[in-house]
Structures are given as C-alpha cells and as structure tokens.
Amino acid sequence: GPDGLTHYYYAEVTDRAPGSRFTLAHDGSACTASGKVVTTVAFQHHMHGRTMGTLSLVDASGTTAWSLSGDQGNIWWAATGALYATSFQFESVRGSDEKKAPWLITL
Q1: How far is CA 33 from CA 29, 30, 40, 59, 86, in A?
Q2: 31 phi, psi to nearest 5 deg
Q3: Residue 38 near residue 88, CB atoms below 8 Å
Q4: Residue 102: what pLDDT?
Q5: How far is the C-alpha of 40 from the C-alpha of 85, rounded, in Å?
Q6: What span, in angstroms and rounded, lies between the C-alpha atoms of 62 and 9?
Q7: Do residues 14 and 38 make contact, with C-beta atoms less than 8 angstroms apart?
Q8: Most buried residue among 25, 43, 88, 101 by CB atoms closer than 10 A?
Q9: 54-57 CB contacts, 8 Å cutoff, 24+ apart
Q10: 8 near 105, Cβ under 8 Å?
Q11: What is the largest CA-CA distance in the chain?
C-alpha cells in the first residue's frame, strides 16, 4: 500500500483479455437501513504501466463520479469522488497489453 502497511485491493488480470473489467462494489445495505446516502468516497490509487487501463468510481445509477486512465507513474495518488447514492462501485478495466489493471485502496 501507499504507506507500506495499509491493505489494498487490486485487480488480478494476468489471465484476462485486454478490456476485461473487474468490479469492487459497496452494496449500500447499511446506508439503506439507516436512511443515509454516501456523498463522498476518498481513496488512493496506483496506476503504473505504459498501457495502463481505466479506473472509475460509479454510483448505483451508473453515473461516473470519477475516472482516470493511463500511466500515472509509480506512485500512490489520493482521489475523491463526489456522489449521492446508497451504493457505488469501482470499475477497473485492463489496458491493451499490460498484464495489470489499476490498483486501488479504498475508504
């Protein structure tokens, strides 16, 4: 992770075709049960590789709240996506010939 200690999620795409999609979803059940919504998602991402794919934050209606493509260097970056939803998901799409997809650490 960014500090050498934090756990993170990543998309393993070694055996996947370019353009393959990996999704990490928050179902919103706790929000729905309490009548609340998520308005901001703060996370860090690492997208390094010459043909890196795309990482997006998408709300329950399918609206993209944040998206980034391509090589961002060998560094972890902080990002924030603004949305108004009970559920959301990260979508990671494999690039054209790299055997990796965007990594991310959430919340």
Answers
A1: 6, 5, 19, 18, 10
A2: -65, -45
A3: yes
A4: 61
A5: 9
A6: 22
A7: no
A8: 101
A9: 54/91, 54/92, 54/93, 54/102, 55/90, 55/91, 55/92, 55/93, 55/101, 55/102, 55/104, 56/90, 56/91, 56/92, 56/93, 57/81, 57/83, 57/88, 57/89, 57/90, 57/91
A10: yes
A11: 44
Nearest-angstrom CA–CA distance, 30 and 36: 8
Residue 77 DSSP one-character state: E
Mind listing the pLDDT tens digit for each residue in 51-99?
888 999 999 899 999 999 988 998 889 999 999 999 999 998 888 865 6
pLDDT band at residue 101 using 50, 70 and 90 as cut-offs: low
Residue 5 makes CB contacts below 8 A (sequence gap 6+) with none
Backbone angles phi, psi at 30, to 5 degrees: -70, -40
Residue 8 CA to residue 19 CA, distance in Å, equals 22
Please provide the distance, in angstroms rounded to a whole number, between the alpha carbons at the two ends of the chain: 13
